[in-house]
Amino acid sequence: MRLVVVSDSHGDRDILVQLQAHYQGQDVTFLHCGDSELRQDDAVFEQMAGVEGNMDWHDQFPDKVMLSIEQQRILMTHGHLYGVNFGLTNLLLAGQAEDANLIFYGHTHQLACATHEGILMLNPGSISQPRGQFQKIGGTYAVVDVSEQAYEVQYYNRDFEAVERLKFKFNR
């Protein structure tokens, strides 16, 4: 299973269209972790699940989405309602309560991935307004490959090029 995870595009619709075009014809699931600043009825969301971020003023997206894909349980949320700027404990507890094995979030504009008690927690960073240590990359998204043996995470820049130093493998 391959997941393309993006967040915090902040009105940059073109990058989402380009992202979908780049992976056209491939067996991927597109996920947006909020702050798209687009309406839920925008055509980009015909192929992409999304959640409400703190900058999405339309109140059309859900605050969180639970997805079951190929025996994987995915909790996706923006993160602001779980206080992710101050730690991931509340988000981890929410994921455990939902029996999730993958938790995707945004809000901080900083990429991050780690496993906690067998659960992959991932922030793809901001595709349009990055912050923090990897800000100079100019925006990131993540591709997550899930197999029975491992979670493999590769971060990409806005030109769809793999950022080699941002490749991670977590055994399951």
Automatic annotation (TrEMBL):
Superkingdom, natural source: Bacteria
Keyword vocabulary terms for this entry: Metal-binding
Entry-linked InterPro entries: Calcineurin-like_PHP_lpxH, Metallo-depent_PP-like, MPP_YfcE, Phosphodiesterase_MJ0936/Vps29
Gene3D superfamilies with a match to the protein in the record: 3.60.21.10
Region forming the signal peptide: none
Enzyme Commission number(s) of this protein: 3.1.4.-
Domain Calcineurin-like phosphoesterase: start-end pairs: 1-148
Pfam families per the UniProt record, alphabetical: Metallophos_2
GO molecular function terms attached to this record: hydrolase activity; metal ion binding
Names of the cofactor(s): a divalent metal cation
Family of the protein in this entry: Belongs to the metallophosphoesterase superfamily. YfcE family.
Cited PANTHER family: VACUOLAR SORTING PROTEIN VPS29
Protein name in the entry: Phosphoesterase
Origin species: Latilactobacillus fuchuensis
